[in-house]
Amino acid sequence: MSNTVKAPVVRLQELLNSKGLQGAVLTSAESIRYFSGFTSTDGLVFVGEGHVAVVTDSRYWAQVESQCPQVELVKYISHEHRNLANALAVWMKGHKLGGRLALEGRSLTLDAYLNLQKELVEGGLAESLVSLSSDIDELRLIKTESELKAIAKAAQVADEAWKKTLPCFKVGITEADFCAELEYQMQKCGARKPSFDTIVASGLNGAYPHAVVTDKKIAEGELVTVDFGCLVNGWCSDITRTIWIGQLSEEMIQIWSVVKKAHDAGVQGLRPGLTGGQADKIARDIIEEAGFGQYFSHSLGHGVGLAIHEGPGLRRESTLVLQPHMTATIEPGIYIPEVGGCRIEDLLFLTEDGAQVLSHSPYQVPGQIHPLESF
Asked: What confidence tens digit (pLDDT) does each residue in 302-351 have?
């Protein structure tokens, strides 16, 4: 697969050509890294015919030269340039570059946009600035073999950390303390940091899909949803397990069982050729048929890569056709106010005729009184 995927800059240039654009100014952390190799967000990247340039200040010049010697370094110097946009404009003028330019509108602050507008358009270099955020994001949909291996490594690190954290899962530990231990173990196992704010939602807090970790103490017999992942060499992982201590009530067992059934169907049914909406329907139908449809309030899943949430979106309205080497999470959930909630999530990538799971933390099942029994 890696031999059939064109280099990122080549694909971006083809996109620009198809839109009648002469260059792109990239500002999102993901695009800066993907198209230049530069791992800081303190700067911007210009891509145009025959040019890939990183604009940044003196703190990062040596880093650019080391990480991405193939790109051009545009040095922003505070006493010579008004801002990064001005440094870019001076460089572009010297190389006789301009025309219609693409921007990533979603990643720009208003101030940054106004600076680019003033320096490039009002300065006479650019005819216009066009937002191409979605089109640029789509260039990362199909992962190469090396990218999939990097994502699999991030999932492996999260799996290892999960197993090492579970011995401290005891009655009386707070959500915050369990969260801190899990994040520590992810870093100890090789992650740079969590890929998002870890969720530990116990008891009634489980009714909030994106609950904020609290000092609530974990009690026996309640569902505890733990959504975690980590960043390894720039690539993300995303996993959710719902666990407990002791015995569950029949209501909690029913909720867990419906979610697990929907999860398994979603994993087994995921394949190229489906739309994101069709993939979502596979799992959603099971939850709706069980009478919990109103309590499944989000999409079935999303892609994972340099960003924790990226395409493809497995949501009802999505008409995007899934293709081999896309990634996707399968994460159905049920969230009932004043009762609690449950979510089970795995990270997969699409193969030629199905999907392969990248996350391998075992599932605690009813009858087991502690998640360590699942190993």
From this structure: 999 999 999 999 999 999 999 999 999 999 999 999 999 999 999 999 99
Structure confidence at residue 4 (pLDDT) = 55
Burial 294-323, CB ≥16 within 10 A → b, else e: ebbeebbbbbbbbbbebbbbbbeebebebe
CA 335, 340, 343: angle at the middle one, nearest 5?
Answer: 50
Domains and CATH numbers, the chain: 8-138 (3.40.350.10), 145-374 (3.90.230.10)
CB–CB of 195/154 below 8 Å? yes
How many Cα neighbours within 13 Å face the side chain of 55?
A: 24
155, 237 in Cβ contact below 8 A?
yes
Is the bond preceding residue 209 a cis peptide, omega within 30 degrees?
Answer: no
With contact defined as beta carbons under 8 Å apart, do 93 and 78 qualify? no
Beta bridge partners of 194: 230
Spell out, as residue ranges, where the chain has pLDDT lower than 50.
Answer: 1-3
Look at phi and psi of residue 221 and say left if phi exceeds 0, alpha if psi is from -120 to 50, else beta. left
Residue type, 105: G
Closest CA to 119 of 82, 152, 151: 82
Query: Which of 345, 243, 255 has its CA nearest to residue 295?
Result: 255
Q: How far apart are CA 356 and CA 373, in angstroms?
A: 25
What single string gives the DSSP state of each residue in 132-196? -HHHHHHTTSSPPHHHHHHHHHHHHHHHHHHHHHGGG--TT-BHHHHHHHHHHHHHHTT-SEESS
pLDDT for 6 equals 75
Is the separation of the CB atoms in 169 and 371 below 8 Å?
yes
Confidence at residue 271, expressed as pLDDT on a 0 to 100 scale: 99
Distance CA 366, CA 262 (A): 16
357 bridge partner residues: 348
What are 101's strand-pairing partners? 23, 129
Backbone angles phi, psi at 81, to 5 degrees: -125, 145
